[in-house]
């Protein structure tokens, strides 16, 4: 073959590139076309076929002449190799698939043929059986159950559940069995041949299968025989009732005296014995109320359970088909089946079930059966059944302590898995049990299940769990004083965790009431805490269960968590309910010396949790984080620290309040030593710092003076924001001194919040209708604030009343005095807020129980002694009354007598028909205290608070308790500190610190009584109280100015001292004699001449 190639080359030098064309001439045709040239743009092929003389043209079809390159760097041989390997793999897999399909088809055919043959054989064997023994086996005799007899093997072979006639034949076998057993008297003899013992292996196999067939038959036909299952076992029913006959056969063949009993029970257990019974119970549950006595079903269940318990003591591993998972999770099992309840504890079923569940704490919830209905989740039913029965079980004196610990662990794990609908109580109710008057149980659809869950708050369970957890059996010999043993710590830890967990689904009031009055939990836990502290050793308990892996102890604080988790809220609750005599005199439940040590321990624990150890910010979204942990991660270490920090902080605040009422330890004992330095204080001022978070959650750890500095800083920053003239113009008001409340109410009550926070200037009008002299630079406003508070909060005005100690609180009958009484309370809240906002101290001694309303807190019994001492003593008398209650004739009602009008109100719905007795007297006492201290003044307090919060933010005063808040309002009661005032005084006009007139002046001020000193302070500053932090923080600083030249005549010195309260300035003439200076000064400060005196 000759080839002619012509090419036209590309001219690269030209700006217009021309394509390269290749012409290929093939003389004698071609068998295959070689690879086209890559250097040309396209090519044409011409060839001749045979003897043809003309050329035939062939176009390559490829316009590009660019060479194709394999970027993978592989040759064509390599590509062919990979394709070959891939193809080989695919073919190998196809052959394997065909082979498996063939083998599967052979097996299916084999099984099908086998079943077909068996079905044919069943028919044949059934015919032989009917021929030999009759249609239903009625011709069988006593030898039918011998090893050599074909009677029983044939029945076991051909029996089919779906065949109703086979059911009759199975019932016939059971009747003959019972008849032959009655005749022979021995179950073993029934299966023996002569005197020789039977082949136990063969007999055992037959009995296992017969028992299983009986149970399966009852289960399969349970809908048809449901009524028969509820009938009691009698001789007559044994012959007529198929259900009783089959179940009794199982009980007979598994008799504990038979040599094969253990093997049969174990076999039935593994064949889902209790799953079968659960289905049977579910079938008959709707008809239980129509039958009395013990049904054959319940009898069989109890009997087989007892035998299983006896045989299964050596192996207590939990399975999904166990009694504990299948039967104990059945809804209301003990309410529906009384016989089971009777023997459940006495026969050891409770102990066996508790040990079995405890063996699989990690995952036993996953083994529970599917829920029978939405109203009855299996895990909730298991928890309810255990709570209902365990109170009686724990009451038994011989109950081992470890069973109480196991029960606590199991219950806690079940509570962790409660559906959200059942966890109806918030964290606040867990650590703040003072909200106690309106609590209700969880809104469960089924009332009976709700009642079951509330068993957790009953005194029976709590009392005996605490008794067992703190029993002497747990203490090692000689260790009642030393550190706790490991098992003692584990027992106490698990019980504490259970007690805390119960608060998530039961009313906290009921739990803490049971703990306070049915147990000595506070004393027990304090003894444990005291021993750990003395030994400097806190055993760390790792909780067993689903979340055990998540527990990573990192310090001794973790050892404190579990005991403090219950101790703090329990003791806190008791402090709400005990009276002053019990706390201070009887020193119950803890001695005052113990409380001093307790404060030290709690303070250190709280400082470690909030400051030393990392923890989520208490002011951010911590609550949302913890709720997520509670519902998804269980009781993790982070969750426990969060809850302990809150309850510990609350308890320390309460102890601080008790110490404020009657001091039994230094107030500084509540401060953390580390929180006193300036470095810590500098961090507290930053709102996003960890120190600020500590201030919010545990303010008492920081000294009072530091908190006041923070408070004043916050006020200064707020005033700078609102005292901008361009934004908020200066407000001017004109008030009459004799109508100051009404005029101020008309002028200020309708002002918006921003205007109230801005500058307000006052002009006074005296009793003659003439404006008083003086320009308000701040001093007139101070005088206005003192005057209006003195008039409005006067008890003669009718809005406030006073306690026997002359402390003010809202008048419950204010509506009878003023038509707009609630608007006036809101206005007075604004007035008090404005005074605090401007840093003006006002002399208003509020009752502590009213100040608690400014902090949105609840009042309790011990606060009643301040309001009504006589009522308080009467309630204490009732608390300890031991005589006949019917003689008192008390009901849940209370009488109000205001301004001669007597009204009777019910303390609770239907209270007029509920008589007070020994059982409900504590409830009555707290309802009376709640009515007097909270309910009666609720409207007035809420309106006062609403006005107060327009100027004072809640976070500003949350760092102070009620007694400290009174100091913020009125200043210190210690009187004028003359030395401090002199140290921070300035002088002008020719006076100096060592000037003779100044020396005489300070000597005179020191000799004045406290009343005159307060009048002097009001004369020069506009307020009778000094700054809380001392006169160093008085702005502007106190200054004494010479009001005349030194050489002035005596006639010119006859004038009185004057003041400019807006500048805290005293204008003092240079008097020559001390007696004249004193007389002039006293006349000036006692004249009460307002701003007209000059």
Automatic annotation (TrEMBL):
EC number: 2.3.2.26
Pfam assignment, any one: HECT
Record-linked InterPro entries: E3A/B/C-like, HECT_dom, Hect_E3_ubiquitin_ligase
Record-annotated active site: 1062
GO molecular function terms attached to this record: ubiquitin protein ligase activity
Coiled coil: none
Spans through the membrane: none
Domain HECT: 752-1094
PROSITE patterns attached to this UniProt entry: HECT
Function description: Probable E3 ubiquitin-protein ligase which mediates ubiquitination and subsequent proteasomal degradation of target proteins.
Name of the protein described by the UniProt record: HECT-type E3 ubiquitin transferase
Higher taxonomy: Eukaryota, Viridiplantae, Streptophyta, Embryophyta, Tracheophyta
């Amino acid at each position: 073959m000759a080839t002619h190639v012509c090419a036209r080359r590309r001219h690269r030098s030209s700006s217009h590139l021309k394509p390269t064309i290749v012409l290929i001439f093939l003389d004698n045709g071609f068998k295959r076309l070689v690879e086209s040239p890559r250097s040309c743009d396209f090519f044409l092929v011409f060839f001749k076929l045979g003897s043809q003389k003309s050329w035939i043209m062939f176009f390559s079809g490829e316009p590009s002449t660019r060479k194709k390159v394999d970027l993978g760097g592989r040759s064509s041989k390599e590509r062919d190799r990979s394709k070959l390997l891939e193809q080989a793999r695919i073919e190998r897999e196809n052959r394997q698939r065909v082979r498996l399909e063939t083998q599967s088809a052979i097996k299916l055919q084999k099984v099908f043929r086998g079943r077909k043959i068996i079905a044919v054989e069943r028919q044949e064997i059934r015919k032989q059986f009917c021929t030999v023994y009759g249609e239903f086996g009625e011709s069988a005799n006593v030898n039918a159950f011998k090893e050599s007899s074909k009677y029983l093997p044939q029945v076991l072979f051909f029996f089919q559940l779906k065949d109703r006639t086979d059911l009759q034949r199975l019932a016939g076998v059971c009747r003959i069995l019972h008849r032959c057993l009655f005749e022979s008297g021995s179950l073993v003899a029934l299966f023996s041949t002569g005197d020789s013992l039977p082949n136990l292996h063969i007999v055992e196999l037959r009995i296992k299968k017969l028992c299983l067939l009986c149970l399966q038959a009852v289960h399969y036909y349970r809908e048809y025989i449901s009524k028969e299952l509820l009938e009691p076992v009698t001789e007559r029913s044994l012959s007529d009732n198929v259900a009783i006959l089959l179940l009794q056969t199982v009980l007979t063949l598994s008799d504990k005296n038979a040599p094969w009993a253990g093997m049969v029970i174990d076999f039935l257990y593994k064949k889902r014995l209790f799953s079968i019974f659960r289905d049977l119970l579910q079938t008959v549950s709707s008809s239980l109320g129509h039958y009395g006595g013990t049904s054959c079903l319940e009898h069989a269940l109890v009997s087989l359970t007892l035998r299983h318990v006896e045989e299964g003591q050596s192996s207590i591993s939990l399975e999904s088909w166990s009694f504990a998972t299948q039967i104990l999770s059945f809804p209301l099992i003990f309410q529906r089946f009384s016989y089971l309840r009777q023997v459940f504890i006495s026969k050891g079923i409770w102990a066996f079930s508790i040990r079995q569940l405890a063996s699989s704490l990690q995952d036993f919830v996953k083994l529970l059966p599917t829920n029978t209905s939405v109203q009855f989740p299996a895990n909730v039913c298991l928890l309810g059944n255990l709570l209902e029965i365990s109170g009686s079980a724990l009451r038994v004196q011989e109950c081992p302590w470890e069973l109480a610990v196991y029960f606590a662990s199991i219950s806690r794990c079940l509570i962790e898995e409660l559906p959200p609908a059942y966890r109806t109580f918030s964290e606040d109710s867990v650590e703040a049990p003072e909200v106690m008057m309106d609590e209700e149980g969880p809104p469960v659809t089924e009332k009976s299940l709700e009642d079951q869950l509330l068993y957790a708050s009953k005194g029976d369970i709590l009392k005996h769990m605490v008794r067992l957890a703190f029993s002497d059996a747990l203490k090692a010999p000689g260790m009642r004083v030393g550190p706790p043993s490991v098992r003692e710590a584990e027992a106490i830890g698990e019980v504490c965790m259970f007690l805390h967990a119960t608060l998530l689904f039961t009313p906290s009031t009921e739990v803490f009431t049971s703990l306070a009055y049915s147990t000595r939990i506070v004393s027990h836990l304090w003894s444990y805490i005291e021993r750990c502290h003395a030994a400097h050793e806190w055993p760390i308990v790792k909780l067993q269960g689903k979340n055990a892996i998540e527990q990573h102890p990192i310090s001794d604080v973790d050892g404190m968590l579990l005991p403090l988790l219950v101790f703090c809220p329990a003791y806190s609750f008791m402090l709400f309910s005990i009276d002053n005599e019990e706390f201070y005199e009887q020193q119950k439940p803890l001695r005052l010396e113990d409380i001093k040590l307790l404060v030290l321990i709690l303070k250190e624990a709280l400082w470690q949790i909030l400051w030393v150890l990392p923890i989520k910010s208490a002011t951010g979204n911590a609550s949302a984080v913890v709720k997520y942990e509670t519902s998804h991660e269980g009781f993790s270490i982070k969750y426990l620290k969060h809850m302990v920090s809150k309850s510990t902080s609350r308890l320390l605040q309460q102890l601080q309040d008790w110490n404020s009422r009657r001091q039994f330890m230094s107030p500084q004992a509540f401060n953390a030593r580390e929180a006193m330095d300036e470095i810590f204080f500098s961090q507290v001022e930053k709102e996003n710092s960890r120190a600020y978070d500590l201030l919010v959650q545990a303010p008492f750890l920081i000294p009072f003076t530091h908190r006041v500095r923070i408070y004043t800083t916050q006020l200064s920053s707020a005033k700078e924001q609102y005292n901008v003239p361009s934004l908020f113009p200066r407000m001017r008001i004109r008030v009459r001194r004799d109508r100051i409340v009404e005029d101020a109410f008309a002028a200020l009550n309708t002002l918006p919040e921003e205007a109230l926070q801005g500058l307000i200037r006052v002009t006074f009008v005296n009793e003659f209708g003439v404006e008083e002299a003086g320009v308000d630079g701040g001093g007139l406003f101070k005088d206005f604030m003192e005057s209006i508070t003195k008039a409005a909060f006067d008890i003669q005005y009718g809005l406030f009343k006073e306690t026997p100690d002359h402390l003010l609180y809202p008048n419950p009958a204010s509506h009878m005095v003023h038509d707009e009484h609630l608007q006036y309370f809101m206005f007075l809240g604004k007035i008090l807020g404005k005074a605090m906002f401007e840093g003006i101290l006002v002399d208003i001694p509020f009752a502590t129980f009213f100040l608690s309303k400014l902090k949105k807190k609840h009042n309790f019994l011990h606060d009643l002694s301040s309001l009504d001492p006589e009522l308080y003593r009467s309630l204490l008398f009732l608390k300890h009354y031991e005589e006949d209650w019917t003689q008192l004739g008390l009901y849940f009602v209370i009488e109000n007598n205001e301004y001669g009008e007597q009204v009777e109100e019910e303390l609770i719905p239907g209270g007029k028909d509920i008589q007070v007795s020994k059982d409900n007297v504590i409830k009555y006492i707290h309802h009376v205290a709640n009515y007097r201290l909270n309910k009666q003044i609720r409207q007035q307090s809420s309106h006062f608070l609403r006005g107060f919060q327009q100027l004072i933010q809640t976070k500003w005063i949350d760092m102070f308790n009620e007694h400290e808040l009174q100091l913020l309002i009125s200043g210190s009661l210690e009187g004028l500190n003359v030395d401090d005032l002199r140290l921070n005084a300035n002088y002008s006009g020719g006076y100096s610190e060592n000037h003779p007139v100044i020396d005489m002046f300070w000597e005179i001020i020191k000799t004045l009584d406290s009343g005159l000193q307060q009048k002097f302070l009001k004369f020069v500053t506009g307020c009778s109280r000094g700054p809380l932090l001392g006169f160093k923080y008085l702005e502007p600083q106190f200054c004494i100015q010479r009001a005349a030249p030194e050489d002035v005549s005596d006639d010119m010195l006859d004038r009185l001292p004057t003041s400019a309260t807006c500048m805290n300035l005293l204008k003092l003439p240079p008097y020559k004699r001390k007696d004249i200076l004193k007389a002039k000064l006293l006349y000036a400060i006692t004249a009460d001449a307002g701003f007209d005196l000059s």
